[in-house]
Amino acid sequence: GVNRVPLIAGNWKMNLDHLQSIAFVQKLAWSLKDARHDFNAVEVAVFPPFTDLRSVQTLVSADKLPIVYGAQDVSEHASGAFTGEIAAPFLAKLDCSYVIIGHSERRTLHGESDENVAAKTKAAIASGVVPLICVGETADDLEKHGASAVPVAQLAAVLDSIPKGSDFVVAYEPVWAIGSGQAATPEQAEQVCAALRSTISEQLGEEAAAATRILYGGSVKADNIAGFMRQPNIDGALVGGASLDVEGFSAIARYQ
Ligand code: PEP
């Protein structure tokens, strides 16, 4: 998209412990550096498990690596009696640039509602961590309501919690495309991403809509990324499975 810095984001899910994370990030940085001559001006982000974040922070800051990072989830609360939860101020202290909120695995496996997603988004923004808000329809939704209705409703439900001028990222991830090897077509994804941008424009204004990055996610690989990146309303990708292979993820970040 126009004037928006593309974001290639790797969601590791529950993979790679803190020792493996160090080796991975080091190799990724080398791979990106090697390819500098054909490297797009993109932001490359990794989303490791919580227990890796301190190690990744130490490595990235010591070696000034061209990689940013974030967490896969965050608590709605800033502190207190919430056993097992991780607060947004903790992520900010670890220099997390982003936090994924409302991933379909959180929505389905952990029963997260649009209200939870809105509260987490608010908490992240209050701590200066940019929320990467995931929306997307299931195969059933697609059949019953078409592609755009559910993701647009999910996004509309969270936009009220975003103060004007805040930086946030949206990821359109059709649930049927996640981990299935069956990506949406670039044209299908573009259509929904355009609808999401209109929703931002309606609720937060044209300026916010023009500034906000909207990513596609769902079975993105090195050999299908370019088609998505050519779409005017797609500003990057959220990558699951293919983000666990250094060379594959590096190739996605170097899409042509
Ligand atoms: C995801 O879980 O965010 C995702 C897009 O997974 P995959 O790339 O494996 O489909």
TrEMBL record:
It is found in: Cytoplasm. Substrate binds at residues 11-13, 179, 219, 240-241. InterPro entries: Aldolase_TIM (IPR013785), TIM_sf (IPR035990), TrioseP_Isoase_bac/euk (IPR022896), Triosephosphate_isomerase (IPR000652), Triosephosphate_isomerase_AS (IPR020861). Keywords: Cytoplasm, Gluconeogenesis, Glycolysis, Isomerase. GO terms for cellular component: cytosol. Transmembrane segments: none annotated. It catalyses: D-glyceraldehyde 3-phosphate = dihydroxyacetone phosphate. Pathway: Carbohydrate biosynthesis; gluconeogenesis; Carbohydrate degradation; glycolysis; D-glyceraldehyde 3-phosphate from glycerone phosphate: step 1/1. GO terms for biological process: gluconeogenesis; glyceraldehyde-3-phosphate biosynthetic process; glycerol catabolic process; glycolytic process. The active site is at residues 103, 173. One of its GO terms (molecular function) is triose-phosphate isomerase activity. It holds the Pfam family TIM. Homodimer. Involved in the gluconeogenesis. Catalyzes stereospecifically the conversion of dihydroxyacetone phosphate (DHAP) to D-glyceraldehyde-3-phosphate (G3P). Belongs to the triosephosphate isomerase family. This is Triosephosphate isomerase. The lineage of its organism: Bacteria, Bacillati, Actinomycetota, Actinomycetes, Micrococcales. The gene is tpiA.
